[in-house]
Amino acid sequence: MRRLTAGLFSSVDGVVESPHLWQFNSFDPELGAGMKAMIERVDTVLLGRQGYEEWAAYWPQAEATDPFGSFITPVQKFVASRTLRGELGWTNASLMTAPLEEFVADLKETDGADIAVCASISLVRQLLFAGLLDSLMLMTHPVVAGAGRRLFEPSDPVTRLELQDTTITSKGNVLATYGLRND
Fold first, then answer.
1. Beta bridge partners of 166
2. Where are the domains of the chain?
3. Rounded-to-integer distance, Cα 171 and Cα 28, Å
4. Beta 161-168 vs 174-180: how paired, if at all?
5. What is the DSSP secondary-structure string of 82-124?
6. For 82-133, what is each residue's pLDDT tens digit?
7. Distance, CA of 42 to CA of 74 (rounded, Å)
8. pTM over 0.85
9. Which fold has domain 4-180?
10. 72-89 residue pLDDT tens
11. Angstrom distances, CA of residue 95 to CA of 34, 87, 127
């Protein structure tokens, strides 16, 4: 069975939206190495509509030497959307052909490497609470962002997690990977 993973940049106060507004200079070699390791294990990416539209407008024009750009454009991408129709314009991108949880459960049963959820807070939440997300890496930067969308909401169910891995980087980022606790 393929593993489903997600990684989100986070502030200390839990903001995961628009990290480019509060990351400042905290990106360091260890964070880059963690992202590189994730990229090397992934051959399929899941995106929501908004993330797809933002990334499809940016990444195809990114410099060919950008490590993430050279990964994200050619990789197979499936987009969850209730409003997009027809063919998608970005290389190797297509719409999911079934409801999200059903599509992902079936995809996990196919041959291939890891599947990563990218650029979608709502997909990460939905797949975590559905029990389909195998690991969630929160890359917490040493900053209080204040405003912005957080990953979890007050109405979310109590959900027990277990720590799978942790790293503290030279610039004070905490990379913590969690999975669902099975007891």
1. 176
2. 4-180
3. 6
4. antiparallel
5. SS--S--SSTTEEE-SS-HHHHHHHHHTSSSSEEEE-S-HHHH
6. 999 989 999 999 999 999 999 999 999 999 999 999 999 999 999 999 999 9
7. 12
8. yes
9. Dihydrofolate Reductase, subunit A (3.40.430)
10. 999 999 999 999 998 999
11. 28, 8, 17
